[in-house]
Specification:
Layout: E1 2-6, H1 11-22, E2 26-31, H2 39-48, E3 53-56, H3 62-71, E4 75-80, H4 87-92, H5 94-112, E5 118-125, H6 149-167, E6 171-178, E7 180-182, H7 201-209, E8 216-219, E9 231-232, E10 234-236, H8 237-252, E11 260-265, E12 271-272, H9 273-284, E13 290-293, H10 308-314, H11 322-336
Parallel strand pairs: 1-2, 1-4, 2-3, 4-5, 5-6, 6-11, 7-10, 8-13
Antiparallel strand pairs: 9-12
Helix pairs in contact: 1-2, 1-8, 3-5, 5-6, 7-9, 7-11, 9-11
The chain binds UDP-4-deoxy-4-formamido-beta-L-arabinopyranose (WQD).
UDP-4-deoxy-4-formamido-beta-L-arabinopyranose binds near residues 180, 199 and 217.
Cofactor: NAD(+)
InterPro entries: NAD(P)-bd_dom (IPR016040), NAD(P)-bd_dom_sf (IPR036291), UDP_G4E (IPR005886)
Protein name: UDP-glucose 4-epimerase
Length: about 350
């Protein structure tokens, strides 16, 4: 069974390629390397002993997408990660995000719906919920008006897939709404490689810990939470990768009741910024240099998942603790800076 992983050189994509190969799938990666390096192929191969097929390609080129599916007519499933994902950048460059995240999705679905059967996993995000009214967040929580073009592309992306599945029964799809991915493969052969100054909390923490950054700014401690800092559901990237394999198997084994399903993928536990900092200090044995500053525009107070649907229906549950994930993130940071 050949599986296409778009964005397969990226953070979550590369970890998912490893888990797919471990399950015996043949993997072909499409990546335009705009936010990832071909070096990642070596890391994947070092872990699994199998080098995935790789085609450097931009999904915005419709002719290339058509030609890819002509050449790889045996692709039985697609896991679609390739997208731009920087919230702040999306506010500055909305058209780049609408083109790169949505036009490419349409080109992929146009090819998949020409097959007798197609299985499609979409990389969505808890960002579709905005600040949900109730915690933990279930899949039935209302989708709120997006706070950024990035978040809007995830909402619109889900609607494009839903509307297509409604008229194309041959398309079987699942959207996975990620919470906050973090960490790295325990081998430290692959991990997160943020370009430039990290926007996300965990890579900024580990880069501060290793001395690459002077000090972590904690964006506000005046939120209505126990310690005043925002709460998120931090999930180990390997747990998240495994959820993709389980979801794909559900579709390929024909176990899905509907031809479009949505699942939250988190740990079900919320952690505050201070708790994440303390986790780093525990696993690294070092004090982190941080300073509380003003709130960051657009941040919500809290988001953590109700994962009972994925636990029950997918038979999937996150296994790693916050400290496990932080330990892997720190080991990775030390390795790439050594
Ligand atoms: C987490 C918490 C910050 C950096 C983003 C995207 C979301 C998804 C996951 C793609 C917040 C605080 C952060 C820092 C800080 N990505 N923080 N100092 O914003 O929850 O979600 O990544 O799907 O779409 O929005 O993650 O890691 O940026 O922030 O205090 O230097 O850490 O205020 O409370 P976020 P994050």
């Amino acid at each position: 069974m050949k599986i296409l992983v778009t964005g397969g050189l990226g953070f979550i994509g590369s970890h998912t390629v490893v888990e797919l190969q471990k399950e015996g799938y043949e993997v072909v990666i499409i990546d335009n390397c705009s936010n990832a390096s071909e070096e990642v192929l070596e890391g994947i191969t070092a872990i699994t002993g199998k080098r995935p097929l790789f085609e450097k390609m931009d999904l915005r080129d419709k002719a290339d997408v058509i030609s890819f599916f002509d050449r790889h007519s045996d692709v039985a499933g697609v896991i679609h990660f390739a997208a731009s994902k920087a919230v702040g950048e999306s506010v500055e460059k909305p058209l780049l995000y609408y083109e790169n995240n949505l036009t490419t999705l349409v080109y992929l679905l146009q090819q998949l719906t020409q097959k007798k059967k197609a299985h499609f996993i979409f990389s969505s995000s808890c960002t579709v919920y905005g600040q949900a009214d109730e915690m933990p967040i279930t899949e039935n929580a209302p989708v709120k008006p997006a706070e950024s073009p990035y978040g809007n592309t995830k909402q619109i992306g889900e609607e494009i897939i839903r509307d297509t599945c409604r008229v194309c029964p041959q398309l079987q799809a699942i959207s996975l709404r990620y919470f906050n991915p973090m960490g790295a493969h325990p081998s430290a052969e692959i991990g997160e490689l943020p370009l430039g100054v990290p926007q996300n909390l965990v890579p900024f923490i580990t880069q501060t810990g290793i001395g690459l950054r002077e000090q972590l700014s904690v964006f506000g401690d005046d939120y209505p939470t126990e310690d005043g800092t925002c709460i998120r559901d931090y999930i180990h990237v390997v747990d998240l990768a495994r959820a993709h394999v389980v979801a794909l198997k559900r579709l390929m084994d024909g176990k899905n009741e509907e031809n479009y399903e949505v699942f939250n993928v988190g740990t079900g536990t919320g952690s505050s910024v201070m708790e994440v900092i303390h986790s780093f200090e525990r696993v690294s044995g070092t004090k982190l240099n941080y300073k509380v500053v003003g709130r960051r525009a657009g941040d919500i107070t809290q988001a953590y998942a109700d994962t009972s649907l994925a636990n029950r229906v997918l038979g999937w549950k996150a296994e790693s603790t916050l400290d496990d994930a932080m330990r892997s993130a720190w080991k990775w940071e030390q390795k790439i800076r050594s």
